[in-house]
Amino acid sequence: MKCDYESDDELRTAVRCLPALAMVPSSDVVESFLILADSMPDHEKMPELLSYFEHTYIRGRRRPGRGEHYGSAIFPIESWNHYEAGAGCIARTTNAVEGWHFGLQVLFQCHHPTMWTFIRGIEKDIQMQRATFLQGIAGTQPSIPIRYKALKLRVQNIVDRYLSSEILVYLRAVAYISHA
After folding, report:
1. 121 in helix, strand or coil?
2. Helix (H) and strand (E) counts for the chain?
3. Taxonomically, which superkingdom (predicted)?
4. Are 4 and 11 in contact, with CB atoms under 8 Å apart?
5. Can you say how many angstroms the Cα of residue 145 is from the centroid of all Cα atoms in its chain?
6. Considering only CA atoms, which of 81, 104, 100, 101 is closest in space to residue 162?
């Protein structure tokens, strides 16, 4: 599927819509997944991918018995859903370790700092924390880098249009913004 994914724009867009379900309200994720699954392009590996995604993120395996009874997903929807964060323009990642590690790389300006680089980085961080604290006491708002302002505005605009757009169009818009 990898070769087809790299060469087929329709397949690539459809697969990218799966993680875009994180920007759908929790109560609508299952229904949105089913609509998305029905619209997926034909590919020999697509049923396997959809089954994996459904059992891992959407709902668990079907339980024996009558009706639509499913077990719980490995990762419940509430643990990975970002709809509220997108509407409020707050979080950029759910992985705290990823955010912490990236923060260290930015702070030290390298992946493996020497002892002296580490000490200078800690001193720099202390100065930044002190400045942020003093700005908070003074009542000033911290500045946000321009690239994040533009991205947050785009995400908020798309999320605000959730109720007024068709779910597949919405998912494609989220998928496009996350990979643009």
Report:
1. helix
2. 10, 0
3. Eukaryota
4. yes
5. 20
6. 81
Distance CA 84, CA 90 (A): 9
pLDDT of the residue at 54: 92
Q: pLDDT tens digits, residue range 112-130?
A: 778 888 888 888 888 888 8
The amino acid at residue 122 is I
- 0.85 surpassed by pTM: no
Q: Is 8 helix (H, G, I), strand (E, B) or coil?
A: coil
Give 78's contacts (C-beta < 8 A, 6+ positions apart).
Answer: 26
Instruction: For residue 38, give the amino acid letter.
Output: D
For 50: left if phi > 0, alpha if psi spans -120 to 50, otherwise beta; the answer is alpha
Give pLDDT tens digits for 129-178.
888 888 888 888 777 777 777 777 888 888 888 888 899 999 998 888 86
